[in-house]
Amino acid sequence: MLKLENICYSIDDNEILKNISLEIDERFVAITGPNGSGKSTLAKIIAGIIPATSGKIYFDGEDITDLSITERANKGISFAFQQPVRFKGITVKDLISLASGKKLSVTDACAYLSEVGLCARDYINREVNASLSGGELKRIEIAMINARGTRLSVFDEPEAGIDLWSFQNLIKVFEKMYERNKGSILIISHQERILDIADKIVVLKAGEIAQIGSKDEILPSLLCAEAGCRFTKGDE
Amino acid sequence: MDSIQKNLLEQISGLHEVPQGAYSLRINGSLYGKNSSENIEIVKKEDKPGIDIYVKAGTKKESVHIPVLLSESGLKELVYNDFHIGEDCDITIVAGCGIHNGGDEASEHSGVHSFFVGKNARLKYVEKHYGSGEGKGKRLMNPTTVIELEENAYMEMETAQIKGVDDTLRETRAKLADGATLIVGEKLMTHGEQYAETRFTVDLDGENSGAHVVSRSVAKDSSRQIFVSRVNGNNVCSGHTECDAIIMDSASVSAVPEIKANHTDAQLIHEAAIGKIAGEQLIKLMTLGLDEKQAEEEIINGFLR
């Protein structure tokens, strides 16, 4: 579905991404790695927000490298921001309607909110402004992706700001999203529980793919590395 | 009324026909029709153009419409409307002016609206301004609003000028007695070569009086806007004034919030922000499939809602 070919990105001689080649066809693909490894940059390149310095991107076989954000969105790529954007005067219902591409009834808009664990009636007419908490905004962001229902959905750290209680629900939301869209869901995450549902895990380090493989291949070594790190600290 | 006048009426008041109940409709410089109701009396002024509106004490859940329409090019008028709102009322007044100028001469409407709001009364005042027409003649509007709120009176004023007015000076002066509250929400959009100037002066004279003056505006093309808001705290009171503007193209916006405390227990706040549409807002809407122009429109429509 999505194919990245030798994607490079640099700012002022600083190489952020180096020759990333990757194919995404599975249900859930997780990209993980330390802070600053280029995960969010890669997600933004896929959505068209940042242009790659070099390399090609194909979506369903079509070269979309030079397409704009809007064109990619209309081809079927959705992107959930790590830090959701606030608007003055635009309501939750407005955004969900825009996301779905049609005028939604209150009932339909509410259904999307309920799915992400928000009491719909309390939120539907609220402005998407600073009066909403980070966690609330994150859930609305996910509801928008649900309303879009595209073939590829990219989430940049969806778990950030969502309390632990909702974690299991978040995973259920992703599973339901797959059932509905039958597309691919690409999630950038540090969370073991999210990595645990991935069919494929990509580990980025310093702008390069350090490891790639199935959950069973990658997850144990990641956890072991973390544990090792903790012990080293203790030994000192 | 012809179709142009009907369209103006709809734009400024949402009405399709002459309204029910108490109203006064002014078209092209003269009174087209007026109607008093049991509790609301509308009287034509004898000494100058305009009307006096008397609302009986205790009148609740009633509304008055006083639209003004100008569809002849080159017309100039100055109208005085005085509103006497009795004690304990709870009413809504919808005013507005629509100018259609299809000719080359300037059309101008200046209105002075004075509100005398009695003790414990609640008033919602809505005022919309709209201009249309392809003529070269300018469409000018200069509304002046004078407000006197008696003890514990509450007034909410919503003003909007979204389209088609070339030149405007909007002046509002208010005096508040003990316990009175004034809430003002202004929405303004200018485009082309338009110029809009807004001046608010609020005197918080009464103990525990309060005012909240908020302006949201969008300046497009090479239009210019000036917003001046002056809140004087002369007693134990609270005052807040805020100007939030989106600037586009080669427009210019100037915001001058001024607060003056003449009492140690006056709590006054001013805020002003001017900036272009945030890039991340555009990007977010573009990821939903909107192009840049559509995204911009959505952001502005929401902002001015």
Structural class of chain A: alpha/beta
Tell me the CATH architecture of chain A: 3-Layer(aba) Sandwich
Radius of gyration of chain A: 18 Å
Quaternary status: heterodimer
Biggest β-sheet: strands ordered side by side in the sheet of chain B: 2-1-5-7-9-11-13-15-17-19
Query: Strand share of the residues of chain B?
Result: over 45%
Q: In sequence order, what are the helices and strands of chain A, one letter per element?
A: EEEHEEHEHHHHEHEHEEH
Compute the separation of the termini of chain A in Å.
47 Å
The largest β sheet of chain B comes out as:
10 strands, mixed
The H/E string of chain B reads HEEEEEEEEEEEEEEEEEEEHH
- Major interchain interface with per-chain residue totals: A-B, 25 and 22 residues
Major β-sheet profile of chain A? 6 strands, mixed
Number of strands of chain B: 19
Number of strands of chain A: 10
Q: How would the global form of chain A be characterised? A: globular
Radius of gyration of chain B: 20 Å
- What's the helical proportion of residues of chain A? 25-40%
> What's the number of helices of chain B?
3
Could you give the distance between the termini of chain B? 29 Å
Strand order of the largest sheet of chain A: 6-7-8-3-9-10
Runs of chain B in which pLDDT lies below 50 for 5 or more consecutive residues are none
